[in-house]
Amino acid sequence: MKKPPTQATNSSSPRNVVVREVPIELCQFIKFGGLSDTGGEAKQLVGEGRVLLNGNVETQKGKKLVAGDVVKVDGHTIIVKLA
Q1: How many domains does the chain fold into?
Q2: What is the percentage of the chain residues whose pLDDT exceeds 70?
Q3: Which of 8, 29, 44, 59 has the fewest CB atoms lying closer than 10 Å?
Q4: Strands 64-65 and 24-25: what pairing?
């Protein structure tokens, strides 16, 4: 499995990911935020218990996220921000 991209941010710096509308499903947001390459990979991350939502392990792949929710995968943190 490919590791999440480091891009210009390091793993300790949360990054805002702007979405057009909320709610957005967790797996969609993980993919959109660049923490996985595919939706299937995002589902696998959630299924393996590697995703934290607001500090808690989240295992619901279709969990609906709203603005301000914080998602962490393997040390990379992204935050739902509404456009």
Answers
A1: 1
A2: 86
A3: 8
A4: antiparallel
